[in-house]
TrEMBL record:
InterPro entries: GlcNAc_PI_deacetylase-related, LmbE-like_dom_sf. The keyword Zinc applies. It comes from Streptomyces javensis. This is PIG-L family deacetylase. Transmembrane segments: none annotated. PANTHER family: N-ACETYLGLUCOSAMINYL-PHOSPHATIDYLINOSITOL DE-N-ACETYLASE, N-ACETYLGLUCOSAMINYL-PHOSPHATIDYLINOSITOL DE-N-ACETYLASE-RELATED. It comes from the Bacteria. Gene3D superfamilies: LmbE-like.
Length: 256
């Protein structure tokens, strides 16, 4: 059995992009460690107690079977044309020094003796500045820690296009430019691993639902998340029961 470290930008990303994989790894007996770069807050962290989104993350992690949750110490950078100043207590992740952030992550990889790192593709998925930074920091941390396996979470662009058509068919409001989204994520030819995680659809769906602030909020993805958690589990598994990765390991194994 091995230790796998999953590196994500914000609470809820772990469930949406890799929830089935994390549940599968835990079910197979591996130690699963989840590191988030930010706690999802745009402002200063509360003085007393853990931020709500981190509490939601711990609930999600428990559902998926994650053994340890770590916040790397940065603030959310936000998405969109405005890049706000840093809050008084920490640096926004996208503005952080890449080497310093990589050293923080590498220290956890060393401590855990992680055999594999899950991180993001070069586009940061849909292009969020924090997701792009996860890719940069994850790659460098794996080099520093000499992590033998590195898989970058992504989605094939043609799958994104099909999901967008379904979203429009169901009349779910989505405040994204569809033309822009189809240039994000990865070409199918770049993808090396596709995992069938339909067996873990209920866990993945419950993990998404644990992020109440995102499901019930007014953000651009909230209507989609609300509809997702109301789907019958078999339909949820049919739509979101596969997860994709690009193997960028220093010495790529011949098979998964």
């Amino acid at each position: 059995m091995a230790t796998v470290l999953a590196f994500h930008a914000h609470p809820d990303d772990e469930a949406l992009l890799t929830g089935g994989t994390l549940a599968r790894l835990a079910d197979e007996g591996h130690r699963v460690v989840l590191v988030v770069a930010t706690d999802g807050l745009m402002d200063a962290a509360p003085e007393n107690g853990e931020p709500l989104r981190m509490r939601e993350l711990r609930t999600s992690a428990a559902i998926l079977g994650v053994d340890r949750v770590v916040h790397l110490g940065y603030a959310d950078s936000g998405h969109g044309p405005l890049f706000y100043p840093d809050p008084p207590d920490r640096t926004r992740f996208a503005r952080a020094d890449t080497e310093e952030a990589a050293e923080r992550l590498a220290a956890i990889l060393y401590e855990e003796d992680a055999a594999m790192l899950l991180t993001y593709d070069a586009n940061g998925g849909y292009g969020h500045r924090d997701h792009i930074k996860v890719h940069e920091v994850g790659r460098r941390a794996a080099e520093l820690a000499r992590t033998p396996r590195v898989l970058e979470a992504t989605i094939p662009r043609d799958t994104v296009e099909r999901l967008l058509r379904l979203v429009r068919l169901l009349r779910i409001p989505l405040r994204h430019d569809p033309a822009e989204l189809t240039t994000r994520f990865s070409a199918r030819s770049a993808i090396t691993h596709r995992y069938d995680v339909r067996r873990y659809a209920r866990q993945k769906q419950a993990a998404v639902a644990a992020h109440h602030s995102q499901v019930d909020g007014a953000g651009r993805m909230n209507p989609v998340m609300r509809r997702m958690i109301r789907l019958p589990a078999p339909l949820f598994g049919l739509l979101l029961g596969r997860e994709w990765y690009i193997d960028v390991s220093p010495s790529r194994p011949s098979q998964c």
